[in-house]
C-alpha cells in the first residue's frame, strides 16, 4: 500500500471523520472504500455509454425482438 497526501477542506474532512466513526473504520479506509465505489460507478457509466453508442449506430431491427417477446412476459399464476 502506498501513502499519499490528499488536501480536503475543513468541512469535508469533518464530514469524512464523522462518516468513518459511524462506519467504524478509520479515515483512510473510508476514503479507499469511497474511491473504489466511485471508480466502479465511472466504469459502469463508461460501459453504458459504449452500449448506448453501439445501439445508436446499429439500432434493433423491427424483426429482431418477436422471438424474445414471449420470454419477457411474466408467467400468470
Tell me what the structure shows:
It is elongated, with a radius of gyration of 22 Å. With 77 residues, the chain is mainly alpha-helical. The N and C termini lie far apart (54 Å). The protein has helices spanning 10-22, 27-57, 66-72.
Q: Which short descriptors sum up this protein?
A:
single chain; 77 residues; mainly alpha; 66% helix; 0% strand
Strand content: under 5%
Mean pLDDT: 88
What order do the helices and strands follow?
HHH
Supply the number of helical segments. 3
Instruction: Give a quick account of the main beta sheet: strands, pairing sense, barrel closure.
Output: none
Count of β-strands: 0
Structural class call reads mainly alpha
Which segments are poorly predicted (pLDDT under 50) over 5 or more consecutive residues? none
Query: What is the gyration radius calculated from CA atoms?
Result: 22 Å
- N-end to C-end Cα span: 54 Å
Helix content: 55-70%
Shape: elongated
SSE arrangement:
Elements: H1 10-22, H2 27-57, H3 66-72
Amino acid at each position: 500500500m502506498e501513502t499519499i497526501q490528499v488536501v480536503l477542506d475543513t468541512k469535508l474532512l469533518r464530514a469524512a471523520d464523522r462518516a468513518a466513526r459511524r462506519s467504524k473504520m478509520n479515515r483512510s479506509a473510508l476514503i479507499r472504500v469511497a474511491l473504489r465505489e466511485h471508480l466502479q460507478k465511472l466504469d459502469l457509466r463508461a460501459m453504458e455509454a459504449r452500449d448506448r453508442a453501439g445501439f445508436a449506430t446499429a439500432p434493433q431491427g423491427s424483426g429482431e425482438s418477436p422471438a424474445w417477446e414471449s420470454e419477457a412476459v411474466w408467467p400468470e399464476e
